[in-house]
Design brief:
With about 270 residues, the chain is of the alpha/beta class. The protein is built from eight helices and four strands, in the order ααααβαααβββα. The longest helix is centred in the first third of the chain and has 102 residues, at about 35-140.
């Protein structure tokens, strides 16, 4: 037997079947005395080669299919990585944008807090002083009551200079009674007497300047407001422009006024009639 099974990828069962067929054909040729052993061996060798080529072809096709499958999977993995990378960049950009906005917001918020803190510190002493004064007023221990009572007594003289009124008794301090209560008996009694018959609906003490106009309208009277400074000087800060009122009333406040307020009061006086 010339053929061998060296490096033959043929399965054992197939190879054994071909070898048995070769042996049977050679035995039959010897029995008949035929000298064709070489042709028989060549024929079966070609058959083995053909079977080998079939097996090799199947293996090559299988390897090619595996290669194509792996290449396709690799391409899919690459595309997935590209999509993931793009999505990751988009997410990073969104996160950076959100953080920038957050940083800008907190910077603006910190700036507002800083300004508010400065404002509170700047007004702290003024608020404390005002709170202390309010507390003393509530406890009837305010030292400024005496000073403002004196200023209240001087209102008549100042009004004489502005409106040329001869009798200061015609000036009735109605809305400033919280500043002179218990100190100037004469003015207080006059205040209580003249407050009768007036419409005090929705009137609070101390009365804001903006609410005086409503009080004037309800009672058909004229109300003038004055203020004093540390030098016990009296300044008019509100001069009523109502013509022909039934009565004149004056009020004294504890707020400082500027020269502009005084000049405005001077301009208004020409519209006031007794």
């Amino acid at each position: 037997m010339e053929s061998t099974r060296q490096n033959a990828p043929i399965p054992d069962k197939k190879f054994d079947s071909i070898e048995r067929m070769r042996t049977n054909v050679l035995d039959m040729a010897r029995e008949r005395g035929l000298e064709i052993q070489g042709k028989i061996n060549n024929h079966f060798n070609e058959l083995l080669k053909k079977e080998k080529r079939k097996i090799v072809g199947k293996e090559v096709k299988s390897a090619a299919r595996q290669f194509r499958r792996r290449r396709k999977q690799t391409e899919a993995d690459v595309k997935k990585e590209i999509r993931d990378a793009r999505r990751w960049r988009i997410d990073i950009a969104k996160e950076e944008k959100r953080r920038r906005k957050e940083v800008l917001y907190w910077k603006e918020e910190a700036s507002r807090w800083k300004k508010e803190n400065r404002r509170l510190k700047r007004n702290l002493k003024a608020r404390e002083k005002r709170a202390e004064v309010n507390r003393k007023i509530a406890e009837n221990r305010w030292r400024g009551k005496k000073k403002y009572a004196k200023l209240q007594a001087k209102v008549g003289d100042e009004l004489k200079k502005i409106w040329e009124i001869r009798r200061s008794e015609t000036l009735k301090p109605v809305l400033a009674k919280h500043a002179i209560e218990g100190k100037v008996k004469k003015i207080t009694k006059e205040l209580k007497r003249q407050s009768e018959g007036l419409d005090w609906e929705e009137t609070e003490f101390p009365t804001p300047i903006n609410d005086i106009k409503k009080f004037e309208k309800n009672n058909d009277i004229c109300i003038n407001v004055f203020s004093g400074d540390d030098k016990t000087k009296v300044y008019p800060i509100r001069v009523s422009g109502k013509a022909n009122p039934k009565k004149f009333f004056s009020s004294l406040t504890g707020e400082d006024v500027s020269g502009d307020d005084y000049r405005r009061a001077q301009k208004k006086k020409e519209y006031v009639e007794e």
